[in-house]
Structure formats: structure tokens, C-alpha cells
Amino acid sequence: MNLIVAVDSNWAIGYKNKLLVRIPADQRFFRQETINKAVIMGRKTLESFPGARPLKDRLNVVITSNPDYKIEGALVVSSISEALKAVEEYNTEDVYVIGGESIYRQMLTLCDTAYITKIDYKYKADTYFPNLDELNDWVKTEESDEQTYCDLIYTFNKYERIK
Questions:
Q1: Over the Cα atoms of the chain, what is R_g?
Q2: Strand blocks (E) in 64-151
Q3: What pLDDT, on the 0 to 100 scale, is given for residue 163?
Q4: Cα–Cα distance for residue pair 112/74, rounded to 1 Å
Q5: CATH class, 2-161 region
Q6: Do 61 and 77 contact (CB within 8 A), yes or no?
Q7: How far apart are CA 55 and CA 49, in angstroms?
Q8: CB neighbours (10 Å) of residue 157?
Q9: Per-run averaged pLDDT (10 residues), the chain, 163 residues
Q10: Minimal CA–CA distance to 113: which of 80, 91, 88, 85?
Q11: Domain boundaries, the chain
């Protein structure tokens, strides 16, 4: 299973349930990686999308503790184990964990590959992703050349979990 996320230089991922920044090339990369695949997310992540609508052309699995939560176009589950059961017909390389912080932390050990867009900037933030550079069981296996968007510098990175 994979995870995909954009982080700043402090591994921050969001502020007040919004992305820190929208970089068109990063959004294209996210779409290209996840299209026609399964994505697993928490309720707040879904609600941060435009119109709080599920992503098109993907199986959207939303984890929430609210038993009455319903959203058209998404499969709502109440636990990580239910989310895993919902995607069991997919190849594991076609399943992406897409946030937020709590879901990433709970599912990190279940993932083998992490696609991390690293932005060379420190934003005001209230949600963070675990720093994979500090974890012994993750190693960076790919890093793109530096990219720029306006005044921002960022790279696309691939990490793999050591088994």
C-alpha cells in the first residue's frame, strides 16, 4: 500500500483543515498516481476537498467514527480494518492513503511506499506527517531535481519501507 502527501520543511501538512499550498505540478502528480485506484482518507480530509466531494474516478474510502455519516460517491467505514477490507480487491500498489494526520499515523506501518512532495518552506501549520528521514524503517529511494512554483522550491521523493 502507498501513501502520498506534500510536506513543508518541518513535515507539516496542513493548517485549519486546508493544504498549506497548492502547487499545480504536485496536484497533477497526485491525480496521475491515484486515478482509477483506491484512496483511503479521514472525514476531515474529504471535507477539505472542493465542495467536500469525493475524488472522481477513484474508490473513495472515508474513515469516520460518526455512524450516521454518509456521502454520495464514497464508501464510509468506521475503522482502519474496515477500510482495508473495502480495498481488498485492489492490488496493494493501487491503494493510496491520502490523509489526514491521524490516518497517516495509524496506517504508516501498513504502507510500503511513500510519495512525498517536499516543499522548501516553513508554513504556519497545525497538522504534521511523521518525519520519514528520522525513522529507521524508511529510506529515500528517489528524489527529483528541484522544481519551482512562483518562489517555492520543491522536490518529488519516493520512500520505501525496509522490511
A1: 15
A2: 75-77, 95-97, 113-119, 127-128, 138-143, 147-149
A3: 81
A4: 24
A5: alpha beta
A6: yes
A7: 8
A8: 18
A9: 98 96 97 98 95 96 96 97 98 97 97 98 98 97 97 98 91
A10: 91
A11: 2-161
What pLDDT digit, counting tens, does each position of 59-90 carry?
999 999 999 999 999 999 999 999 999 999 99
Q: Which of 153, 26, 3 is nearest to 92 (CA)?
A: 3
Q: Closest Cα to residue 29, out of 54, 56, 5? A: 5
- Reported as type and span, the H/E element at residue 4 is strand 2-7
pTM for the whole structure: 0.96
Distance in angstroms (rounded) separating the CA atoms of residues 136 and 33? 26
Alpha carbons 42 and 65: distance in angstroms, whole number = 10
Buried b (16+ CB within 10 A) or exposed e, 3-21: bbbbbbeebbbbeeeebbe
